[in-house]
Amino acid sequence: xxxxxFYMEKGQGPALILLHGNGGSCGYFQSQLDAFxxxxxxxxxxxxxxxxxxxxxxxxxxSQFADDLLGFMDGHDIKKAHLLGFSDGGxxxxxxxxxYPDRVERLILNGANLDPSGVKRRAQLPIELGYRTxxxxxxxxxxxxxxxxxxxxxVNEPNVRPGELAKVRAKTLVVAGTRDIIRRSHSELIARSxxxxxxxxIEGGHFIAAKSPAAFNRAVxxxxxx
Length: 226
Description:
- The chain is of the alpha/beta class.
- Helices cover about 40% and strands about 15% of the residues.
- The longest helix is centred in the middle third of the chain and has 17 residues, at about 120-135.
- It starts with 6 loop residues before the first strand and ends with a helix.
């Protein structure tokens, strides 16, 4: 492994790993750390090239981030964990659950998508335009190159077929906002494709964990405590 993750950690009990979204950091989960750490040993790492975790030399892909998560778990002697992923973090968690099923206890996918078509067009279009602009200047500017790499995650990834979700073994909660940038039909497709999963919509947009923490935390804890 070519990076050391920066992470926040709190609590005792079963491991619960929180994975933030594209361009974010572990600080996104400030409103979850206290609530969840009463019952769980919570870890919130910064993904490769995000927050305070270095970029390293490995590919900047969702697939690589899933392998980085395996390295993080091995490095902290976490044999199995509940995974909660938001947005791109949800995509990382899903790919991890497909690749390393024995390492996942329960899976919470918040605002995740299987491919870029799952994002509403009005939200995806500015991302695509920003990506094209950043790519144009990437050869001359380090910041443009980094921006192109970050936006490229949302333009080119993930690429998961609905049929693959039948292989998810972890008990799963799919949660999204009522006004999410992820299409409602897409969240429904994910939930329908994962055997025995539950789907919950919480009033709000994409950032429900930060903006409606009481409702979000209650939905997550109810699911984990079943």
